[in-house]
Design goal:
The complex is a heterodimer of chains A (273) and B (251). Chain A is mostly helical and 273 residues long. Helix content of chain A is 70%, strand content 1%. Chain A contains 14 helices and two strands; from the N terminus they run H-H-H-H-H-E-E-H-H-H-H-H-H-H-H-H. In chain A, strands 1-2 form a two-stranded antiparallel ribbon. Chain A is globular, with a radius of gyration of 20 Å. The two termini of chain A are 24 Å apart. The two termini of chain B are 19 Å apart. Classes of the chains: A mainly alpha (273), B mainly alpha (251). The interface between A and B is medium-sized, with 31 and 34 residues.
Amino acid sequence: MTRTLDRDASASRGLLLRIVPPGLYVGRPHVIVERAHLVYRRAWTAFVSGFFEPLFFLLSLGFGFGQLVSTVDGLPYPAFVAPALLAASAMNGAVFDTTFNLFLKVKYSKVYEAMLNTPMGPIDIAVGEATWALLRGGLYSAGFIAVMLGFGLISSAWALLALPACLLVALAFAAVGMAGSTFMRSWHDFDLVQLVVLPLFLFSTTFYPLSVYPSWLQAIVQWTPLYHSIELLRALTTGSVGWGVLTHVAYLVVMAGVGVLVASRRLGKLLTS
Amino acid sequence: MLAVLEYQWTWYRRNWRSSAVTTFVNPLLFLLAMGMGFGSQVAAGPATGGERYVVFLAPALVVTTAVQTAMFESSWSVFSQFKWQRTFHGMVATPVTPAHVLYGQLLWVALKLTFGCTAFLLVAGVLGALRSPWAVVALPVGVLTGMAFSALLVAYTATREKPDSFSSLFRFVVIPMTLFTGAFFPLSQLPGWLHPVAWVTPVWHGIELARGAASGTLGVLPALGHLAYLSALVAVGVLLGRRFFARRLAV
C-alpha cells in the first residue's frame, strides 16, 4: 500500500479513467476492501455476531409467533416471514455499515483524509466501501439462506437467485445510505436514520401481508424500497415467480444507481474541498 | 448525588430533541406494526388470554422497551463518561464521592425510564390497547425491570476498558431477552428447557407482573415473588456498582 503511483501514469488505464476527471479515480478500490478485512480480523466477534440477529428473529417470530398464526397468504408463517427477515437484514447491515461506520470514518477517525494523501481518489473510496459492504452482507445472507434451507423453508429452485438478489438489495441500500450520510452533520442526525429504517422494517409486509392495510396505505407501502426487496425474495424462495419480479429488480437497480451517483459526487466535494 | 442528576439533566436539556421524538415514535410504530398489523393475523384465543393481540402485547412491550432503553443508558453512555469525556473523573475531583456518582447515574436512568414508560402507556392508551385501569401498573413495573437490568449493567460497564463487548451484549442478551421471554407469544410455546433460562431474566418477571396486572390474573404471592426478584437484582447491581465505581474512580 505504500507504493507510490503517478496520477498521470494511471490515467492511461482504460476508457473509464479517461472520462473521469483526473484524481477522482485511479482504479484501486480493492485496497479499501483489504483495509476493512484487516480491521475486522481484529474484531471478528463483532463480525460473526451479525449473523445471529436475524437467526434469533427467525426462531422467535417464525416458530414462536408462528404458532399463533396458521397460514399467511397460503404459506406457513415461518416460510412467510423468513425471506422478509433475509431482506431486512441485508438492508440493516448495508445501512449501518454505510451510515454510522462511514460517518465515524469521515468525521472522527479521518481515515479517508489519510487515504486521499495516497494516490487514491474519492471514487476509489466509494466503490471500495460499497464492495466491502456487499461482501459482508453477502456472507450474512448466505448463512441465513443455509439456515432457511435447513429448516425446510425453501420450496423452489428459484432460491438459487436469492443470494444475488440479497446483494442487489444490499447494494441499493448501501448506495442510498452512503449518499445520505454525506449530508449528516452530527450524531444527532442519526436518529433520523433510525426513524427511516425502523418503520421500513416494521411496515414493509415483513410480518404480515399487504392486504392488512387499507388500499391507500397499500399504495404508499408499494413505493417503499424494502417492500420491493421483501417481495422479490419472497417470490424467489417460495417459487411464485412472475414477470412482476422484474419491477422489483428494476426499482432496486435504479435506487442503487442514483445512490452511487449522489454519494460519489458528495464524497468528492466533502473530501477534496 | 442530586448534583450528578442535575448534570445529566443540564446536558439533556440541550440535546433532548432527537431522543424525545424516538421516545414517542418507537412505541407508536411497534404497537401499530406488531399489535395491529401482525395482530390482525392472530385470532383471540387461549394463547392470548382471550384478548385481542394488541391488548395482550402492550403491557409486555412497555417492559421490553424499558429494558432496551436501560441498555443504551447504562452501556455506551456510562462508558463514555468514564473513558472518553471523563465526566465522572471530573465529578470525583469535587466533594462528590464515587457512590454518589453511581446513585446519580442510576436516578437519571430511572427518570428516563419513567418518561419512556409514561410515553408508551399514553400512546397505547390512545390506540385503545389498554383495557383495564390496572394496565397502569406497567409503568412502575417497567421502571423496576429496567433498573434491575441497568444497575447490573452500569456495574459491569464500570469494569470495562473497551466498549467492544456492548454490541455483543445487545445481540446475545438484550435481543433474545426481548424475543424469547414471553413478550410476543406465551412462554409455554417454547421448548421446556428454555423456560428456566427465561426465568432468570428480569424481563420475564416484569412481563408476568405487567401483563398479569392488566388482565387481572396475577396472584398476590407470585406478584411478591417477582417484585422480590427484581428488587434483589437492583440491590446486587447497586452493591457491585459501588465497589467498581470506587475502584475505577479511586484518586
